Amino acid sequence: MTRPLPFDIAPWSVGLSGVDAERMGHRESVFALSNGHIGWRGSLDEGEPLGTTGAFLNGVHEAHPMPYAEDGYGYPEEGQSVVNVADGRIIRLLVDDEPFDVGSGELAVHEQRLDLRGGVLHRDVTWTSPAGRTVRIASTRLVSYAHRAVAAVRYTVTAVDGAASVTLLSELAANEPIPGLHPDDRVQAALDRPFVSVDHHAIGTTATLVHRTRRSGIAVAVAMDHVVSPAVDQRVETSPDLARTTIAIRLGAGEHLEVVKLVGHAWSADAAPDALRDRAEGAVADAARAGWGDLVAGQRAALDDYWQCADVVVDGQPRLQQAVRFALFHVFQASARIESRSVPGKGLTGAGYQGHTFWDFEAFVLPVLTATAPDAAAQALRWRHAGLDAARARARQLRLAGAAFPWRTIDGTESSGYWPASTAAFHVGADIAAAAMHHVQATGDAAFERDIALELLVETARLWMSLGHRGADGRFHIDGVTGPDEYSALVDDNVYTNLLAARNLAGAADAAERHPAAAGALGVGEDESSRWRSAAGDMAVPFDESRGVHAQSAGFTDRKRWDFAARDPYPLQDNHPYVELYRTQVVKQADLVLALVFAHDAFTPEEKAAAFAYYEPLTVRDSSLSAAAQSVIAAELGYLERAADYLAETALIDLDDLQGDTALGVHLAALAGVWMAVVAGFGGFRDGADGIAFAPRLPPDVDLLAFGIRVQGRTLRLEVEADRTVYRLTGGGVPLTVRHFGEPIVVEPERPIEAATPPLRETGPAPSPPPGREPRGFRDALAG
Description:
Pfam family, one: Glyco_hydro_65N
Strand order of the largest sheet: 1-9-10-11-12-19-16-15-14
Shape: globular
Distance between the termini: 13 Å
Domain Glycoside hydrolase family 65 C-terminal: 686-747
Region (Disordered): 749-784
Organism: Microbacterium gilvum
Low-confidence stretches: none
Strand content: 15-25%
Largest sheet: 9 strands, antiparallel
Domain Glycoside hydrolase family 65 N-terminal: 18-268
CATH superfamily of the domain at 31-67 and 76-305: Glycoside hydrolase, family 65, N-terminal domain
Mean pLDDT: 95
C-alpha cells in the first residue's frame, strides 16, 4: 500500500493542503468532477505539476488494432480506448510577468476541497512570487448537472500587498496524450494523437475547436467563453489544436479580477461539424445567460434531491462517515446525466481500463442507482438495450442464439481480446438481466419492463438455452464458462453463473406472461417460455456432499489447494502464470460468496455459513470487487468485526489508495460496494419476490446508522441504534410492508414505527483469510 495523502476529515467534504508533486495522480482522481457526460480530472488550474491529464466525454473513444500473437476465430478485430477531448480546465496566471508556479516563490496557503453537497471543487492559494509580489487565488470548478454539456471555472485573483499586473491565459488544448493507455507501443502510438483538426473558430470572445478521431470517426466540438469582471479586453486566438484567451489588467492593492470560464461540449459519430459547433457554442451561451450563480445552485439542488434518500449517516466514526459520502458522491456524479450511456469502470475520473464498461456496473453500481437515483439506472439500462443488435451479432459470431453482451466495451461492441476472461464470462448477460428485473421490481415501472427490460430478458434467456444442455442426470448444465473469479476460467456449472442464469430464464418467462403482445412481437411463444421455466427449475448447482459445501464450480473443491505457506507476493496474477492459478483452489475475488449475496434466497443459513467458512481462507482479494460482498455475508452471519474490517477496506480504497492505482481513476464499483456493505450488510437489506426485508445491526463503535432506499416512488429511511430501528416512509399514501428480522411490520407514510433488535447469536471467531491477506482492523483503518 502506498502512503496515503493526508486528506482532512470532514462530514461533507474532502480537503487537502499543500502540493505533493509525486502524488498528483492520486489527488486528481479523488478531486475529479463529472456529470456522467463530461469528466474533468482534479488537476491544478494552471496544469502543472501534473499526474495525468483528463478531459473526457462519455462515449468518445478511438479505435485501434488488436495486437494478437496468433489470430483466432471470433477474436475482436478492433479495440477501443478513451481519449482526451479538448481540455478547457487550463488557466495560466502571470503576476508582473512571472508565471504562477506552486514550485517557485513562497506558497503560504494551498488548499483544494471537494464539496460533497455543493458538487464543486474549491481551491484557495496565497502565493508570493520570487520577486516578492503576493496574490490570493480562489477558483471554483464544476461540471454542471443542470447544463449537461457545460463545465465551468470561476477564477479570482486578488492583489494583496501592492499593485500588480495580472495576465490570465485561458486555454483549450486538444490532442493531449494519455501515457500508458496500452502496453503495446504500436497501439499507444496510434492513441497519442487520436484527433485530426476539422476546424477552429474565434468569433467575438468565443473560441471553438472541432476535431474528428482518425479511426472511430467521432466528431467533437469544444467551445469556451469568459465573463470578466471588471470588464477588460479579451484577445482570442485559435489554431488547430489550441485556443487561447488572454485577459490582462493592472490591479491595485486589495483589488481583484474575476473570470468565469464556460466550456461547452458536443460530440457525434453522425452529425456535421458545423452542427456540433453550434451545439457547443449554444451550450456556452445558455450557461452565460443563466450566470454562475445559477450553475452553482443547480449543483446544490441536484445533490439535495439525491442526498435526501441516498445519504448514509454513520455517527461515531467521522472518517467512515466522510468515506461513505465520498463514495456515494462519486456514484452519483458518474451517472447524473448519462442519458442512454453507460458508466465506465472508473467513471470519468481517469483512463484506467481504457475507459471501458464491465459487468460490475450492472452488478454493483446499478442496484445503488435503482435504490437512490432510479432515473439514472433506467438510462443505463436503455443503453444496454440500444446495444442489443451488436450483442445479437456477437452471439451469431459465436454460433449462439440470443444476445452475447461484451465483457468490456465503450460503444457496445466487444473490446477484449483475452477470451478466457471475456468471451467465456457469459455471466455479464445475467448481470444485466438481474439489474433490469431489480429495477422493475423496485420502481413498479410496467412500461419500462414492456419496452426495455422484456427484450433484454428474452435475448439473454435465449443465450442461456443455446449455451446450456441437459445432462444424463436430467439437470441443466452450462459448461465452459468463467464466473466472477478470474483465477478460475473455463469451468463447468459455475454456481454464480448458473443461479443468475436460472433467475434470468424464469424472469424472462414471467415478463413474457405479463406482456404477451410485446413478447409475441419478439417471437416468444408458450413452448419457448415453458422451456425457460423448465431449464431454470432444473439448473445444476454443484454441491460437495463430502465437505458439506457448495463448490464454486463443478469439481472445484477437489482441486489442489493453493500453497499459502509459500507466502507468495500479492497480487498473485503478477507473480504466477494463469495456468497455475486456474488449476488450484485460490479465489481472486468473491464468486461463490457473491452468489450468496445476489441469489441470497437460494441458500439456507447453514449453507451460507459453510460456504463463508470454506471460501474465506481461499479468497485473496486481488480485486477491488471482493471486500464488499465478503462484508455483506460476514454481517449476515454475525461476524460484525470482520464485516466492519471489509467495509473500511472498501470505503477507503481510493482515499487511502489501497491498491496503489487510484491515479488511474477511482474504483467506481467498489465505491458502490460501500453502499452494499452498509445497506445489505449491516442493514440486512434483501429484496425478492416476497418483498423487502431488513435485519439491521450497528458496526462496532458506531452509535447510529441511517440510510434510505426508494421503493416505487417513495423513500423509506431507517435509523438504526443498538437495540432498535425506526422506519420512516415519505411520499405517497399507501403503507409499505417490510420484514424486520423475519417479522412483518407495516410502515405508514409520515408515521414512523419502531422495531426492536433481537440479540445477536453467538458465532465464535470468524474464519481466517489467507496469510498475508488479513484486512486492516476497522479501528486501525479509520484511525488514519
